Write the structure tokens for this entry.
Amino acid sequence: MGGAPDFQIVLAGKPVGSKLACIQSDYYFDMEYCVEYSTFRTLHNNKSFKSPDLPLASCSGNVPAIASTNSHHESSKAELALLDLYSGCGGMSTGLCLGAKVSGVDLVTRWSVDSDEAACESLKLNHPETHVRNDSAEDFLQLLKEWEKLCKRYITWDMKGRIQSRSMASKKAIDADSNDELAPGEFEVGKLVDIHYGSSNKKGKRGLKFKVHWKGYSDREDTWEPIDELSNCQELICDFVREGFRSKILPLPGDVDVICGGPPCQGISGYNRYRSFDCPWDDERNRQIGVFMDIVEFLKPKFVLMENVVDILRFDKASLARYALSRLVHMKYQARLGIMAAGCYGLPQFRMRVFVWGAHPSEKLPQFPLPTHDVIVKLWPPPEFERNTVAYDEGQALELEKAVVLQDAISDLPAVSNQESREKMSYDKLPETEFQRYIRSTKYGNIFFSCNV
């Protein structure tokens, strides 16, 4: 929306003009609201929509690829960069990248963030090309802001786009000091190997820190040091920032094409008997939805995808879900909310989840993929959000595959006795269903069943 305070006018589901009839006002709107999937969508015209061959996303139909049209960033890229927030082991980003590849889009997870160290180690093992950060989302956002400041201080672009180092008056003095002999008890900084925002221990002062490799010592002796303690290492900081900028160890605004993530659901889930009904925002886990949107606002990606449990629509009159939508719209993003059941896409469980799409005004707002399988319904969303369920229109001819049930998934597993001592067991029979053939397919050929319980 543009101009004065943001608002829109909708009459019977249709926008009413671009000016208020019979009222002298400069207010106008450029976004429409569609009831299906609670969709806020840009009102394109011939001048503002740069890709007339790409139709506007409707509220039903097959899911389109994440199109890279002319946008507020740069011209279309051969590869789209993704940031996975609250990544865990990387399941959401992996699924997005695989789905994008099927649609002919090269989507690559360049960065991921999670506060769980074990999950980060697992993601690193499976995705060595990804810059994985074991940080809280709040610290990651502060790190991004500090990184931008460092890049502005130490890096500049000339007219041809080549990277140049800013001149530093103290450089000669630093070089001279480096030739001095070290006093007893002093250590010499060899190089800076990483950057972090936070504290090195629970009681430490929070701030920007560099991981220092000391000359004459092994990597195991590396330590985290506050940037204030490295004032005599400006040249080393410059080298680190230049190399980090080149390799994009951290994203700057405009570097990220897609942000995905599922903020913690423990403060929302109905299984939590101690949810804060009176003050949902008092729960730090619920506040992560705000942090997620703060990161979106800072990095300004083309697309945003947020996931959470269906209880986000039941808890506190869906205030957290409404907040997520309102933040996207306030940032001028198109947005839509949909409810999808895993069983509708061939998994042996119902498991409903809420997804919120966001897209920059110049992009095509992605639709939700329609179900491919029949499903055994276990529960249903709140009545006021029933229309947000991703499904076919009533009376529409369907050709769905049959529902996948638990037996389809595990009937080929070998029996496990109470006295079983083996940690791994080989399958003792061939797969019996299409689902089993799919999950047992591997390029390595050796499939084992883990009997850890």
User: Anything to note?
Assistant: The longest helix spans residues 137-154. The longest strand covers residues 189-198.
